[in-house]
Amino acid sequence: MRFKLPSLHYHAHPKAGKWEMIPSKPLKGWQDFALAYNPGVAFACEEIINDPQSAYELTNKGHLVAVITNGTAVLGMGDIGPLAAKPVMEGKSVLIKYFSGLDSIDLEISEKDPHKLVEHIVALAPSFGAINLEDIKAPECFIVEHALRERLNIPVFHDDQHGTAIVVCAAILNGLYLKKLPIEEAIVVVNGAGAGALACLGLLHQFGVKKENIWLCDQNGIVHTKRDNVTVYKAPYARDTLHRTLEQALKGADVFLGLSKGRLLTKEMIAGMNSRPLIFALANPVPEILPEEVYEVHPDALVSTGRSDYPNQINNILCFPYIFRGALEVRSSCITEEMKRACVQELQRIAQEGEWGSCGAYEGTLHPFGTEYFIPKAFDPRLRARLPIAIAKAAINAGVSLLGEEQLPEIERELILEAYESLPTFCRLCLIQSVEKKSFLRPSLIFSYALDAQDCWSAFKGALLAVQGHHLCSFQVVHPKGSAHVNDTHFPQHSWGGALPKTAHLYGFSCLPSNVTVSLNSQASNNKNSLFLLEEPDQKTKLYITRLVKKNSALHQAVCVLKDDDSSKMTWEVSEKFNLPSGLYIQDETLYIPKTTSLRDMIESAALVIGTHL
């Protein structure tokens, strides 16, 4: 109840609701009015008549996702109707916008008949680039999704099913990897036989879980072949067995996946599971069993919940924004199984690289891949940089995209820039790589922790692995003690011989369109360094440079000025004098950083030191 008053205030103020429309074009006078509406808009209409695909260039269709519900299965509240469901759908639209950059609108439709609901959505579909079905009860949700996939040529995604399945599958695969158990041998018990649970089983089966190793339970116990009225959706998992209860199913099991009700599982019920079990108690807001209760019985268990106050939260936010972004980037006509599997595999890889500084941390601690971190966190920028491109590639390979592989480099550059532009170091590297001055191309970041700060090394290594994972930079790494990493299996074998220097080199990634470079001139006067563009770039290149330099200058608390829209004169001013954060000092060519410094602050401080003189 402690959230009630703050939540109501949040939804009501300063403006009711959670999103508003903001024009993407200027409307400053009659000239703009004539272009936006009559008579200029007629030319856009005629273009779309001649070429319907031009709607993706001339309207917001290509970046607009509809979140559609009839309010029959809303979160833990059930059938509350379309109007009461609106706050949830608004929230979903806001999440799509924040995490993917796509626009979204919520539509609450008062229609419980699934066939009529399909007709309503089909009639609305020309307005949107993709459709997210939300909180429609089973089995109607299966009927609606299947019909829409058959009739529409835009992506349709029921997040309650497939978003849940993708995130759960990635976490279970990583959990089995940590448990060192082949997926083909895993005994999986699922409690709750709704849309999400059945989608999880379908995707897990694609990755290798055998149907004879699956126990499906619902409110009546184990789904078995002697039961009456088993639905067509549950029937594939019905067991020929004399066992009837969840507790019986759990004996000798490796995985428990709960998508059911809180406090349903007891310590006694999980005691008979195999060693180091995977316990996924995903009921919200109260899980089937609390993690601390699991650890009393199985101290080495791999535990996940749906809550943010415990490690390894299963949250669909890790999936649905990026599924839509990847699909729309290449104009995919649908969401295929290949695209879902690609999302699962990329989520796996990101988690296996470990947590790093810009992701946030549980209780101030960064975790390597392991018991307390085997699924990424919601605010990890690697998700936006890498998931959409993996999904887009899968759509191209599946033959369901209108655009081809030649578009991928440009898409990847934009995704990486969006994901990391809040990190000044990243923008410095991008800027350095995007100019023609050769001395800028190989900045050397020099790190050395105190020799007793070995706990920081794994975090530093995790950050570099993350950087490597999406080809942002290449690097050369040594341990704080200076020893070579010939025995560190996380890093590729080095081709060079001899002792490695005590340095880590980060090489910049160009985010300019088509690897464009621009000529810049640096001048020093009045204790300021000024950077000037020497030629007129195109508008898109100017936009990239402006974004990079503004973010880069924020690192130095300096000024970035673009004189006006018609001028190429961009000036970047940085003071020649700077103060290091408390506790940092420079000796010879090494920046010494105390072990209490966060990983992000460590990298940013190093960029500050090397970046004063461009």
Automatic annotation (TrEMBL):
Pfam families: malic, Malic_M. Its cofactor is Mg(2+); Mn(2+). Gene3D superfamilies: Malic enzyme, N-terminal domain, NAD(P)-binding Rossmann-like Domain. GO terms for molecular function: malic enzyme activity; metal ion binding; NAD binding; oxidoreductase activity, acting on the CH-OH group of donors, NAD or NADP as acceptor. Residues 16-149 form the Malic enzyme N-terminal domain. It comes from Holospora elegans E1. This is NADP-dependent malic enzyme. CDD domains: NAD_bind_2_malic_enz. Keywords: Metal-binding, Oxidoreductase. In the N-terminal section; belongs to the malic enzymes family. InterPro entries: Aminoacid_DH-like_N_sf, Malate_Decarboxylase, Malic_N_dom, Malic_N_dom_sf, Malic_NAD-bd, Malic_NAD-bd_bact_type, NAD(P)-bd_dom_sf. Residues 161-396 form the Malic enzyme NAD-binding domain.
